[in-house]
Amino acid sequence: MSNPSTRAEGDLVPTPGQTIGPFYGYALPYEKGPELVGAHHPRAVRLHGTVYDGAGDPIPDAMLEIWQADEDGAVSQAPGSLLRDGYTFTGFGRAAVDNAGNYTFTTVNPGPTEEGAAPFIAMTVFARGLLNRLFTRIYLPEDTAALDADRLLASLPADRRATLVAEREADGALRFDVHLQGEGETVFLAFDGIDP
């Protein structure tokens, strides 16, 4: 039996405590998780983008969750978010990014939850280097009066507001890139009772 203290440095084997994680692609994504509605839905909208680190490089191992109201502004109370039946809108979706940091959800444009309010999608970001998840919002770009009146957006400097407003593409899709740090860093939110 060899003495561990006499092993050559190249013979050492990493232990689980020396691995790098978390590994979001394992067990957390589920079938049809990014599909809040099926692609066949008459008003289906593609929400997509890329997750970037502080150096501006795509992050290949992030996971995103979204919650949103339906087209009429109603917050769904339907159970079964993890078991997609193909037609029930539950308002929740989960997507892992691909190896180039890209994500895609199939959803609908949310309606305002209150009269005159700016419609938005709530997003949570899980990624390497984060000890806890990050919270942000994705606002629709069309109703500029509602965006100007939104309390959260109004509390931010004008150049920071833009990091929370999606871009509407020619085909009707919404593009929303997430920048964890650096130039154009996405505004992230803190909530009482939830550790940062």
From TrEMBL:
Organism taxonomic ancestry: Bacteria, Bacillati, Actinomycetota, Actinomycetes, Micrococcales
Keywords, in A-Z order: Dioxygenase, Oxidoreductase
Source organism of the structure: Tersicoccus solisilvae
Transmembrane segments: none
Keyword Oxidoreductase: yes
SUPFAM superfamilies: Aromatic compound dioxygenase
Protein name, per record: Protocatechuate 3,4-dioxygenase subunit alpha
Domain Intradiol ring-cleavage dioxygenases span(s) in chain numbering: 43-114
Family (UniProt): Belongs to the intradiol ring-cleavage dioxygenase family.
Keyword Disulfide bond: no
